[in-house]
Specification:
It contains ten helices and eleven strands. It has 285 residues and is of the alpha+beta class. The strands form two sheets. A nine-stranded antiparallel sheet has the order 3-4-5-6-2-7-10-9-8, with helices on both faces.
Length: 285
């Protein structure tokens, strides 16, 4: 009825979430046609003023062999949500802080470390598998702990941007309803409606079974910069805002990585999965 307050989650529903995994367990795979556009890890900590008041020379010496390029820039959102999705969701993307981020990049520019007085971040367009990403993170994380010794992490996030480009998969004429699971496709799975849908953007916040972590899932249409075709973005932002001791960050990120693979597979159909050429990671070693 109109005027009634929206329903709240019952205690039994909360307990059920905490005993079950939100996303079914699936084998880890490596896709021959990788849908990942960008991956970002961010570790936030209580403000360390020394980062803001002096150049991070000692930090640079620790990471310079792998990240030789350096620049400063005004702080902005590390992984921007596409403008059309931001407009639909009402997101405020301009931080407007005037703060400076120190950036350390690999020579090819494909891996970038950002350091501010509040966080350390690693981002890449060249993600292949989790073990490799952790190797690139290990050096700046160790430098952060050695040089600045943050008391703890106040927020840990791991974000995956997957973009489904049908032309790369030979699926140009296949409808989205055949590539996305019904719970993700929604109207795109309805034959009488799908052809008339011009824009589709959704956001849902899901609590993970451990009770500490969450994922903000945003998905919908985006335009491909090169081909100008309509593609589908699956943006999964895993995070915890609970205090985490610095030595426990790796375990938190490992869990987010496991959940991210399950979430992506939960969103797509077997047809799309097979079209990307999955290879079982267990067989690759």
């Amino acid at each position: 009825m109109l005027g009634q307050a929206p329903p709240t989650r019952s205690g039994s529903s909360r307990s059920l979430c905490e005993t079950l995994m939100p996303f079914p367990e699936t084998p880890r795979v490596l896709y021959a046609i990788n849908p990942l556009d960008k991956v970002l890890c961010q570790l936030r900590f209580p403000t360390i003023l020394r980062v803001a008041t002096e150049l991070p020379a000692a930090f640079q010496e620790r990471v310079r062999d792998r990240y030789p390029l350096f620049q400063q820039r005004a702080l902005s959102l590390p992984v921007p949500v596409p403008a059309q999705i931001a407009q639909q969701l009402g997101l405020q993307l301009n931080l407007g802080t005037g703060e400076v981020a120190y950036e350390f990049s690999t020579e090819d520019g494909l891996w970038e470390v950002s350091l501010t007085k509040d966080f350390l971040a690693l981002s890449t367009h060249e993600y292949q598998r989790w073990e490799g990403f952790k190797e690139y993170l290990a050096l700046p994380l160790a430098a952060l702990l050695d040089v600045y010794a943050p008391a703890f992490f106040s927020r840990i996030g791991l974000r995956y941007n997957d973009v489904i480009v049908r032309s790369k998969l030979g699926l140009e004429v296949v409808e989205w309803g055949e590539l996305l699971q019904p719970h993700a496709a929604a109207e795109l799975g309805e034959p009488g409606v799908a052809a008339c849908v011009e824009n589709s953007h959704r956001r849902v916040d899901i609590r993970l079974a451990d009770g500490r972590g969450k994922v903000r899932l945003q998905h919908g249409f985006v335009d491909h910069a090169e081909t100008r075709e309509v593609c589908y973005l699956i943006d999964s932002d895993f995070y915890t805002d609970e205090r985490t001791e610095t030595q426990d960050a790796g375990a938190v990120l490992d869990n987010f990585n496991r959940q991210s693979g399950r979430l992506f597979r939960w969103c797509i159909t077997s047809r799309l999965h097979e079209a990307m050429g999955p290879r079982d990671l267990a067989s690759l070693g």
